[in-house]
Prior knowledge:
The structure holds 2 protein chains of 2 kinds.
Chain A: H1 2-19, H2 21-64, H3 71-77, E1 79-82, H4 96-99, E2 102-106, E3 109-110, H5 132-148, H6 153-158, H7 160-166, H8 171-201, H9 207-234, H10 238-267, H11 273-285, H12 299-309, H13 321-356, H14 363-375, H15 379-407, H16 410-414, H17 420-425, H18 446-477
Helix pairs in contact in A: 1-2, 1-8, 2-5, 2-8, 3-15, 5-8, 5-9, 5-10, 8-9, 9-10, 9-14, 9-18, 10-13, 11-13, 13-15, 14-18
Chain B: E1 5-16, E2 19-30, E3 34-39, H1 45-52, E4 60-65, E5 68-69, H2 74-80, E6 81-84, H3 96-106, H4 113-122, H5 139-152, E7 157-161, H6 169-184, E8 188-193, H7 196-202, E9 205-210, E10 213-219, H8 228-239
Parallel strand pairs in B: 3-8, 3-9, 6-7, 7-8
Antiparallel strand pairs in B: 1-2, 1-4, 4-5, 9-10
Helix pairs in contact in B: 3-5, 4-5, 7-8
Amino acid sequence: MIINVAKTICADQWRYWLRTKVAATVLMLGAILTLAALVVNAFHIEEAAHAREHLQTEAEARFKAQPDKHPHRMVHYGHYVFRAPTPLSVIEPGVDTYTGKAIFLEGHRQNSAMFAQQRQSAGLTRFSSLTPSFLALVLAPLFIILIGYGSVSREREAGTLTLLLSQGTSRWQLILGKLLALISASSLFLLPLLLACLYVAFSSESPLVVLLFCLSYAVYFLLWATVVTACSALFEKSSVSFIVFIVIWMAVCVLLPRLGSSVATNAAPSIGKLEADFKVEEKLRSLGDGHDVNDPAFKKLKEDLLAKYNVDSVDDLPVNFRGVVAQYSEGRQAKVLNEFAEKRMGEELEQAYIARQFGWLSPTVAVRAISTILAGTSLETHHRFLKEAEALRLEFVQGLNKVHVEKLDYTLDMNRNASEEAADKAVVGADNWALLSEFSFKPEAENTRISNALIYFLQQFFWVCISALLLKAAVRRLNP
Amino acid sequence: MTANSVISANALSVHIDQRTILDNLNFEVGKGEVFALLGGNGAGKSTTLKTFLGLMKPSTGSASVMGLSVAEHTNEVQKSVAYLPESVTLYGHLSGLENIRYFLSVAGIEKSDDEVFAALRKVALQKASWNNALSNYSKGMRQKTAIALALLRNAPVLFLDEPTSGLDPAAIDEFNALVSELAANGATIFMVTHDVYGACQVAHRIVLLSNGKVTGSFERVGDTPIDTEAVHAAFAGRKA
Lengths: 480, 240
């Protein structure tokens, strides 16, 4: 009986929305906007996935197709690695938009990721692209407010609440009916996301991850529908509830996420990129110049090597001393670069952790954290990309240095600048470039992503409890 | 409470924020009786009505309908009564017919189309307007729609809030005739009003309410309506 009456009330609410042009327009606009954003983003991501796969293959082929060369020239020739978008980035591009998707790998340096769309756009970066996740997390609640703010208070203002309750309709039936209506209206915004998720679930993504991803958005919409229905019942007038909702929306969807970032930046400050680059450069200089075998920094290396092979001169070594210096120098530089990188990543993670604690104050922050972590577009995943790219960089640079050590004669190497002919002799075969490994970046395994998101699911559960309490209070206090 | 009593107030008091809205009300309304609670603005008429409808709880005493305490059996009482609000508040976005079907549905009452049409014809609502949006109805037409709804609920008890307020004389006569017919068929009618003339025309008994207290009572003798002048004098005197 409770459900039947609630269904009748829900059906009438829909009839009201459809007959009131404003509500119908808001519903249609929201659904069309979500669908459009999804389609546009899906095409964009699909195109980007193919483009990056193609570019990755092409970069590898171009590297391997280089002619016979001096191995150190190949170290500086470098190589590109690209991060292919994850299937769920169709909905949640996450930090990808801000961090860049490609890195140029070369000797002696750790370059930043490039091609970040948002870096090229001016100000208000969060509002400059209507991604499906942005629409779902920020704009959809506004649509839910617009159509639902008067769902119960309208009955009170019109006087129909008295009549309804006097007919034997219980407060629970009424609120449940209004809630069902708003949930079903919210699902118009959610439906395109669910369809996209269904498509993704049949691609290369883990079905469990996709399911949890959908669930987090569904619960988020449910939260908003519950809060809007409850507050609509709690406030006497629609105009008051509308103002309160707009304030809540501003705080939850716009101000608190922004405040979280600001607090995180102040609580865990990190030095700017330019300052960090100077410090790295200063530290690297103290390690010596790997191109100069006579740099005092390599005196001990030279002595140890001469002693090891029991010879008096580097000319008599069975290995190319220039290559040994390059190899040694690169190893030390990589250590320093990784120390700085680890420190920077630690600071960024701490900032992200602090900002995500605002999920206890704003469900939008909680769902955003879940969404990016599950989609594999979180900061953690970006750091993994940087680390894997660095591992590949060091592997191929040191691989080339090894070729330099073992396959290039030291005397020819030292005389390479004497003449063009000498330069032509100081090379190794192109077959050595095959040492470059293929790069294919994959996000974390499903278990890792799910366990990383658990704390934020807990935040969402906290909000479910709050909204349930709010609903209970609304039912208790609902009076004509 | 007597055996014939359908509605009764026993030492009924309602206090809101330390203000006394109803003060020790005691009355009974029998089956088939038209009972009018007459009072000025702020007398406590609407609070009395809300208490009998289960929308407010008594602070002390009790309000009973058909032998059931309203506070304890709210849902059962609500299902056995029909309520006609002062300004008939049906849904403007629905037609008269849709309004009736909707309210019957939320009350869990199933009625055939023929029964609904018969009720609308009984209250003399023009057929041409049945499918028009209620926002285009006059107050009288809305009133008729609400009465049709009350009829369809087959409720043995009807609560009417200022039922003739805003109606033209012809509509008032039609309404009074309908109320008398319902009472003759055994329905118990409880109305709150400040319309002395209307109450005298239709009520079997009038109770005056002022500042939450019963201040007078008039009863019809035979078929002769209650003396309007006497009620008016008492009503005006009390107000003064």
